[in-house]
Design goal:
single chain, alpha/beta, 4-stranded parallel beta sheet, two-stranded antiparallel ribbon, 2 helices, 6 strands, globular
């Protein structure tokens, strides 16, 4: 299981290419890294209410994370994984950990 730990919060909307799973935000420390098939570890997300849609699309296309470990409950991640499970039957486990 390969982990990708993000050094900064991410906005999936404009920060992730769902077609590839690659972080495209040029200001993000992990720009150029792929989340596809990895355990994504992050403190939290940022950004607009469009962010869940981008993450869901990446998951639907097979370019999303295998699992997510997040430092606090996060509506972007919760919404995206709920939609992926409900609409597409794709389960992405989410763990909340104080020290991700």
């Amino acid at each position: 299981m390969i982990k990708l730990r993000l050094d900064a919060p991410i906005s999936f909307w404009g920060g992730l290419d769902p077609q590839t799973g690659v972080i495209i935000d040029v200001h993000h420390p992990q720009c150029g890294e792929s989340i596809a098939g990895k355990v994504l570890v992050l403190e939290r997300t940022t950004g607009s209410t469009s962010s869940p849609g981008t993450l869901v699309e990446a998951i639907r296309l097979g370019n999303g994370p295998q699992a997510i470990i997040v430092g606090q409950p996060d509506m972007t991640i919760d919404s995206a994984t709920f939609i992926a499970r409900t609409l597409y039957g794709i389960e992405v486990p989410v763990t909340v950990s104080e020290n991700p």
